[in-house]
Amino acid sequence: MLNPALSPLSNVPVPSNYQVGPGDTLSVQLYGNQNQDYQLTVGRNGQIDFPQLGPINVAGQLFSVVQSEIESRVAHQMIGVHASVTMSETRAIQVFVMGDAFRP
C-alpha cells in the first residue's frame, strides 16, 4: 500500500538549498525571442537533456545553483531569450520501516 504522503509533490516551492536528484522534474519557461515550456526530468545519470543546450549535469547540486546555471546558459547561448526555472515535481522517496510499527 502506498501512502499518499510519500508520493511525489507537484508544483510546490522548494527551498534554495534543496539538493536536486534523479526523478526530480524541472519546469523551464523560455520567453523573449522564443516562447517555449519544457518539463525536464533528471535522469539516473544525473542529467537533464535540454533540447537547445544539450545535456546538463544537475544531480547533487543545490536547486538555486541549478536555477542560476540554466538561466545563465540560456541567456548566453540563446540570443534574446531568457529562462525561468522552477521545480515542477520532486522525486519520490521510499522509506522502509523495520521492526514494530504502530501504524506502518
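Next protein, fold it too.
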Amino acid sequence: MLGGSANDTAISDADMAYSASPSAIKSSRSAHARASSMMRPPMMRSSDEPARPLVTDREEYAELPSSPVHLTAENPVSTFSIDVDTGAYSNIRRFLNHNRLPPRDAVRIEELVNYFDYDYPLSHNGTPFSVSTEVFDSPFKKDAKILKIALRADDRKAQSMPPANLVFLIDVSGSMHEDNKLPLVKQTLHILTEQLRPQDRVAIVTYASGEKLALPSTPGDKKAEILRVVDSLQARGATAGEQAIQMAYREAEKSYIKNGINRIILATDGDFNVGIRDRNALTAMVAEKRKSGVSLSALGFGTGNYNEAMMEKIADAGNGNFFYIDSRREAKKVVGRELSATLMTVAQDVKIQVEFNPATVREYRLIGYE
C-alpha cells in the first residue's frame, strides 16, 4: 500500500501498498503472519446506540476507478497524490453493523489502512517525516508480493502547536434532525471545545435556508459561551451551503492568525439542496478560497441522504481532511486525536513517486489512492 498526506494537510501515519510480481524479492514468515492478521475483519460494533434500520437510497459516492497493472519494463515509475483521510472505514463499519455490504465506491483501501495506528518510527535529524517499508507474500495471488510504504510525521503535542483560528460551519437544516446527525454534531463539538486553549479562537456559522453567524470569533477559554451556542442549535429548513461556506471563509479571514492554524470545520450530511449544488462548482469555489491561507476539513454524519462524494471533494479542494462520525466513541477518536493531529501542516501538495527495478519486479499495481 502507498500512503501519506496530500494538499496542505499534515502527514500522519499514512500507508500505501503495491501488489507486485517479483523475480527476486524475499519476505519473512512473520511479515506474512502480520499481513494475514491485518486482513481479518476486526469487531465492527462501535456505535453507542443499538443498531437501527439503515436507509441509504439517496447516499452519493464518487466513482472509484480500478488501478491497472503496469509492466515495469514499460513504466517503472509510479506517481500519485496522497492524503490521510479515514472516513471510509467508519462509514463501511456502519453498513456492516446493519448486515449490509457497502457500495463499491464507498470502499477506499487507503482510508481503511490509515484508520489504524501503527508503531512506525519517528523521523530523525529534523526531517519532517519518516519512511518505513515492508514486503510480504500476497494472500490474494500466488507468487506475488505486497510492498507496504508508510509515512509518519513528527508528533506535535497540542500545547506546542501554534494558536488556532477555527470556524465551526454547522449544517442545521431539517435533514439534520436525526439522532446520528445534529445531536451527534453537538457532542462532537463539545469534545473539540474542551480541548481549546486560551490562545485559540472559535467562531460558529450555521446554515439551513440561510446562513447565520451564531458566534463571532471567541477566545478558547470562554468554553461556556461557546457551548451555550452549540447547545442552542436546532435543525430546520432547507440546506443552503454555498453562502454559508463563503461566510465561514470571511469570518476565518477576519481573525486570521499569521503562522497559526486557520481552518474551517464543516459538520454536515452533505445534502446541499439550495444554491450551488454542483459538486465541481462547489469544489472550484473552495479551491479558490484556500488561497487565503484558510483550510477546510469536513466531518460527515448520518445516513439516508449522506453525500460523501460532495464532502470528500470539498475537503480535498480545501486542503483539509475528511472524517465520518457514527458514534460518540468515533467522535472522541476523530476530534480528540486525529483532527488535532492533522491541523498542523507538515507538507503541502504531497506526491509520492516510486521507481521499480525491472530486473527485480516484472509488474505492479497500486492499491489505494486510485
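About the second fold: The first strand starts at residue 14 and ends at 22.
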